[in-house]
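Narrative summary of target 7.
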Amino acid sequence: MLTVSTVNVNGLRAAAKKGFVEWLGSTKADVVACQEVRAELKELPAGAAAPEGWHVVHAPSVQKGRNGVMLFSRAEPEEVRIGFGEPEFEDSGRYAEIHLPNVVVASLYLPSGDVGTPRQDEKERFMAAFLPYLVDLRAKAEAGGREVVVVGDWNIAYDKIDLKNWRGNQKSSGFLPEEREWLGRVFSEAGYVDVQRKLDPEGPGPYTWWSYRGKAFDNDTGWRIDCQIATPGLAERCTSVVVERAETYDQRWSDHAPVTATYGI
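Modeled conformation, tokenized:
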């Protein structure tokens, strides 16, 4: 079995002080992917930068205090890749992957966007470049006898069941028709599978992100934007997906919750 967890930590220095290190120490996951690390390894406590029993891959952003993804793996990776070959995003701290004997696990932090601003343009450029890479990654993995799972903060809610207030967000970045259409192409053209929706096609949710504003968490007014999206063979062997939602607001160490999936490999 292979268990993979993914979580946007919303700043790993802060999360480490509020419970991430303890969570990492207790998880049964074989691989943990983090997004929005927003720190260099030297700025992190040892329990987050070099935890005992883990191999660590870190892809920082050239923009200090921005982005950043990490992968913690109990097994030493056979190969590591940072970035996906697009010059604009190569040093942006948005993508890293590790190759294990039977599977490629990638940590993704897709741009969040903001309608009518350059941030949305950046998101669109990222999506345009990333889809062909996903197609190529699947083909190369299959040729090498591996499956693929791309986990992380995809920053797109695909369907109405993936966010509580879908009516009020139809013109918001993260639920725009063109963004949802692009994610649909990840499923159709690239042939990947959202493992949460394979096991639970009806919804609603379970949500993975709740704003810190107001009573969003208490009212479960969230978005499902943190996903594990796998090649069909691996998706078929997914036995469970759990959103590790904190029991209470004050137990949260991020505005996102870990999403943990178990696969037979």
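Helices lie at 12-18, 20-26, 46-49, 118-143, 177-188, 195-199, 232-236.
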